[in-house]
Amino acid sequence: MLAVGDTAPDFSLLDADGQTVALAELVRNGPLILFFYPADFTPVCTKEVCLFRDAYADLAGKGIAVAGISPDDSESHARFRDKHRVTYRLLADPEKRTCTAYRVLGPFGLLRRTTYLIGQDRRIRAAVRADLRLSPHDKLMQQALESV
Question: 13, 32, 45, 66: which one is catalytic?
Fold first, then answer.
């Protein structure tokens, strides 16, 4: 996992609509909550994606962008987004290059549930890893809302 103060690695990934999205675009207007989750349509991942979805209006109101990354492809993300009415970007990293750069892969290449708060300067402001519990991710989000 990247540490607070580290520079967030740049990336360009396809979103659910097949559009290329870069880190620079996501942090252009303010901080970014960037979270990594193992897979679309799984119980804990669905709860996590919906956690950020339900807070998205408050986050956007404070100028905080949100994006989620998983190894699923754009088509899977589109189905997942539509089914759960996700209003922020879901990014596809099927080759796990960005996951590797952000140090979120565990044993056997399995993705570890990790959330970063990234400033406009691309520095990591906060980071949390919790594979099965969502409360640490929610706490990071709440702290982001209070700090902006």
Answer: 45
Report pLDDT digits (tens) over 23-32: 999 999 999 9
Q: Is 45 a catalytic residue?
A: yes
The H or E element that residue 124 is part of is: strand 124-129
Q: Is there a contact between 35 and 137 (Cβ–Cβ < 8 Å)? A: yes
In a domain, 16, yes or no: yes
CATH number at residue 110: 3.40.30.10
CA dist 136 → 55, 67, 80 (Å): 15, 17, 23
Domain annotation covers residue 131:
yes
Instruction: Please indicate, yes or no, if residue 142 is contained in any of the structural domains.
Output: yes
Residue 2 lies in a domain: no
- Specify whether the CB–CB gap between 14 and 20 falls below 8 A: yes
Which tokens in the block code for residue 115? 């959330």
Structural domain count, the chain:
1
3-state secondary structure of 90: strand
pTM across the whole model = 0.95
| 121 three-class SS | coil
